[in-house]
Amino acid sequence: MTAEALPAPATTTDTTAGASPHRGTLLGIVFAAAGMACVGSSVAVSAAITDAPLFTLQTVRYALAALLLLAVARVTGWRVPRPRGREWLWLAGVATAGLVLFNVGVVRGVAHAEPAVIGVAVAAVPMLLAIVPAVATRTLPALTVILGATVVTAGAVVVEGFGRTDAAGVGYALLVLVCEAGFTLLAVPVLARLGAFGVSFHSVWMATAGMAVIGVTTEGPAAVTTLDTVDLLAALHLAAVVTTLAFLLWFTAVRRLGSGRAGLLTGVVPVSAAALGVPLHGVVPGPMVWLGTAVVALGLAIGLRGGAAARVTPQRRRAISRAGW
User: Computed over its alpha carbons, how large is the radius of gyration of the chain?
Assistant: First the structure.
């Protein structure tokens, strides 16, 4: 990840402004898809850390990610902007909802529901990312984005499948859904000035603090000494690929495309997770996974068409600002 791949400094009013808006849109799509593929790779390490103290491991993960982001800033010369005023609250929301409570929901949720139920909740995120910004700014959402989000959600549900759950599992699934959407939506108001790098770094170190409190409270301060080599390697993968790289790619894409269109690419997560199961675990996807993948692809084709017409314009940014987020 180079400095050129990161958003322009805060003085730029439109990241896709210039002679080639279509190129900016295409880059946003590529960044979003790559970021979600990175998130999908987390499935590859999940089986290896089931016996680890999860909150303590997550603390190590986010602490490593914060250090990696600082290292990237030093190498690339990218400045880490300091939040101002209400920006601290938005970033705290990203960290609390999108990272801390999301992980709590997943960890507690799988005790009451099959993993597929939690996966289906995440699959519904594109709909929230398409609708909530339009409601907040009192504008009509693009019909192609809404239709595309509906199809992508349906395809992701087919890939994930359905599973058994109880009432608590449903509640945790809804928490996961809201928190996953909040991860993106709460970042929108501060992306224009802080950029992908600033939002990523500040939300990650805040999440480190939050996870540390939960870890010490529920697992004890000595839990970190129980992490073995496999746990630490998994934490390193989660920090480098699923957090540092994925966050930078994702927030860059959201700034270029807007949350609605970028949200369509969350459908890549279950598809990439299923694809990685072939080389890593020798599990060949079944017919329903292939069908769901085709439906996700159709939804992306519908929702992402229109090129520069659906870009995040300065006028829309001003509407977002007036709406308070």
Answer: 19
Q: 129 vs 5, 296, 298, CA distance in Å?
A: 23, 16, 18
pTM for the whole structure: 0.80
- For range 217-227, the mean pLDDT: 95
Give which of 13, 205, 186 is closest to 87, Cα–Cα. Answer: 186
The tally of CA atoms less than 13 A away on the side-chain side of residue 98 is 25
pLDDT at 156 over 80: yes
Q: Which residue has the tokens 């001003």?
A: 318
Cβ neighbours, 10 Å, residue 321: 12
Task: Please determine, for residue 265, whether its predicted confidence score (pLDDT) is greater than 70.
Answer: yes
Q: Out of 98-102, 115-119, 205-209, which region has the weakest mean confidence (pLDDT)? A: 115-119
Length of the chain in residues, anyone?
Answer: 325
Name, in order, each residue with C-beta under 8 angstroms of 214's C-beta and a sequence gap of 6 or more: 55, 100, 104
- Which parts of 226-313 are beta strand (E)? none
Contacts of 72 (CB under 8 A, 6+ apart): 1, 78, 197, 244, 248
User: Computed from CA positions of residues 46, 49, 50, 56, in that sequence, does the dihedral angle turn out positive or negative?
Assistant: negative
User: How would you label 286-307 residue by residue, b for 16+ Cβ within 10 Å and e otherwise?
Assistant: eeebeebbebbbebbebbbeee
Burial 133-158 (b: 16+ CB within 10 A, else e): beebbeeebbebbbebbbbbbbbbbb
pLDDT value at position 306?
A: 55
Contact yes or no for 81/140 (Cβ under 8 A)? no
Task: Please count the helices (runs of H) and the strands (runs of E) in the chain.
Answer: 16, 0
